[in-house]
Structure formats: structure tokens, C-alpha cells
Amino acid sequence: MLTLGDRPGRPVDAHGSRGFDVTAFGITAEAHLVTVRLRPGGVVGRHPAAGRQLLVVLSGDATVSGSSGDAVVLAPGQAAVWEPNELHETRSESGLVALLVEGDVDVASAPREVEYP
To answer: Domain Cupin type-2: where (predicted)?
Structure first.
């Protein structure tokens, strides 16, 4: 069993970030799988996305913004998508654990049913 958010992370302070750490736990030829943690009041400073990024809130809260700078509050089970080179930022009032998938990921704009063989 893999419990996201329980493994020690690497602190990140680039771009004015604070209270932020990341833990890589998987990789494919197309994407990196990372756990993002923010302490209460933490911030991932505004920076360009290295590739397409999908941030899925697992616990806590996230206030995110993309290229427009407009803030959107996300709760557990909600996600944000940023395109390559898009400036973005993430903040959390109460603290956050999120799954970040970064790379060549096809993300549907609306939920759709996926058929498995």
C-alpha cells in the first residue's frame, strides 16, 4: 500500500515558495507522479509549468491561479490543469496534500466514461 503524504519530502523554496515540499513516487516515459504538501499558510510561488500539470487535491484546501491570475479555491476531489509554460501559483490556508501529475497527460475537460478491456 502507498499512502500519499506520509513519505518524507524535499523542501522547495524556489520562486518565493514557503512551507512546500515534494515527494516523487513514480515515473513513466510520459509523466512524473509527485506528492505535493503545503503547510498551513504555505505557497508554491508563481512559476511557469515545465510541462502539462494536473494537481489533484487529496486533503486540505488549495487556492490556485493560472495565467490570468484569477484565484480559484479547490477542495478535496477537485483539480487544476496548467499547460506547458503557463504561469501558476498554489496557496493553502489550512494545509494541503495533493497528487501532481506532470508531463504528457491527456486530461479531459469534462468527466467521461472510460472503457477498460
So the answer is: 35-94
Q: Give the long-range contacts of residues 105-113, CB within 8 A, separation 24 or more.
A: 105/30, 105/31, 105/52, 105/54, 107/52, 107/54, 107/81
pTM of the predicted protein model? 0.82
Q: What's at 10, amino acid-wise?
A: R
Domain boundaries, the chain: 10-103
Write the single-letter amino acid at 6: D
**Best CA proximity match to 46, nearest among 61, 65, 33:** 65
The top-level CATH class assigned to 10-103 is mainly beta
